[in-house]
Amino acid sequence: MTIRHFLAPFCALLMASCGSSPPPSPSTPSAAPAPTTSTPTAPAPAPNSSLPSSCRALPPATGTAAGCHQEASDFLRAVTDAVSAAQNATAVDPDSKETYSVVQNGLIQSPNAYLKLIVDALDRQGLCAVYDGEELNVRTSNSFNELFDIITGTGGSWTKYMSTCTPATPVPAIVTPPVLDPECKLAPSKDSYCDRATPRYETDVSGALDELIAQDQKLGTPLIFDFSSRAPGTNNGWRVANAPLYFSEMRGRLRTRGYCSIYSGDDELLIKRGTNRFSEHWDLLTGEGYSLRLLAATCHDAAF
């Protein structure tokens, strides 16, 4: 900043007077210099420790989807090799300690384990790879990145080059799933695909529902079910008169059996036990308001 000094000019007036001399002119002090202040420099953001090491030193990318197109792929061979290795790998479940094949009968058993194997293999080659929930983003700089589809919609493993983006689009953020069941000892999880597998928890779900029906029938005035109304063609599809209490009681009974659970809001109870490799989604209420016990989906990894 330039500091300007303003000096008032003075003219000396000579006064002719007998035996007298002109009074001295007062001096004008200079303006005090303004204090200088330095603008603090914001510290550089710390590298995101959740990203692979090959990604952490890269500056922010500025590309957009408008710059994405198809061309010859630079990283296809490396990605194909990493996917092939993951298809033949085993992993140890961190919760159950079970050793399992990451891909069985063509289906990925744990997308999280599968993706980690692929990302780690590419990271060891100096390739920054991050999965955005749909595609694998791969780059070595921010001049361009390539996108690959490595999980089919039905949970299969494959490698398909999708596009190249120039300049590179931003590295996808890695978001930790929220805690939806505070009483669950398993870490929060997120699913990548769902299917209609054979139910594994049917015995416990049906047992909990049978207990709840029997308990409510013993009351002089039932709190949950209307035992005067039953779904046609069923033996125990009673009308649910108090849906919030119904789902709350089912969660409590399943919790005593070791299950984590959340109510989805779509008449479904999502449950998991002992592992995050999958969760089962049970439809417990028909559209007409009758109790139901139907496995709607099995999701991998667990959906919560």
Order of helices and strands: HEHEEEEHEEEEEHEEHEEEE
Largest sheet: 5 strands, antiparallel
**3D shape:** elongated
Share of helix, binned:
10-25%
Number of domains: 2
Helix/strand/pairing category: alpha+beta
**Quaternary structure annotation:** single chain
- Lateral strand order in the biggest sheet: 1-9-8-7-6
Number of separate strands: 16
Instruction: Give the number of helices.
Output: 5
Distance between the termini: 57 Å
Low-confidence stretches: 1-46
Computed CA radius of gyration, to the nearest angstrom: 35 Å
- Strand proportion, as a percent range, falls in 15-25%
Query: Overall mean pLDDT score?
Result: 88
What structural keywords apply?
single chain, 304 residues, alpha+beta, five-stranded antiparallel β-sheet, 5 helices, 16 strands
